[in-house]
Amino acid sequence: QCIGATTLDEYRQNIEKDGALERRFQKVLVEPTSTDETLQILQNIKERYEEHHNVSYTDEALESCVALTNRYMSDRHLPDKAIDALDE
Length: 88
Known about the structure:
The longest helix is centred in the middle third of the chain and has 19 residues, at 35-53. The radius of gyration is 16 Å and the shape is elongated. The protein folds into two domains: 1-30, no CATH class; 32-87, Helicase, Ruva Protein, domain 3 (Orthogonal Bundle), CATH 1.10.8.60. The chain has helices at 8-15, 19-23, 35-53, 59-72, 80-87. It is mainly alpha-helical and 88 residues long. The chain contains five helices and no strands.
C-alpha cells in the first residue's frame, strides 16, 4: 500500500492516461484549507518550527504569514504555502 499526492493536472497527464496504473489508485480530492483552518494548523505546528529554527513566532506573525501567502502566492494552496513560508 502507498499514498501519493499530485495535482489534478499531473494526475490527468501521467496517471489517468495509463489505465492499468489508474486502477491501482483510489482518487481522493482534498480541498485547500480556509485561512482560519490554516492559522489553526500553524498554531499547532509552530513549536516544532520554533525549535528547529531557534526562533519564536508571535500570533501576529502567524496571521500575517497566512494572509500574505494567501494573497501573493497564487500558484500554490493553503496550508502548504503558509507552512513553507513559515519554514523559510
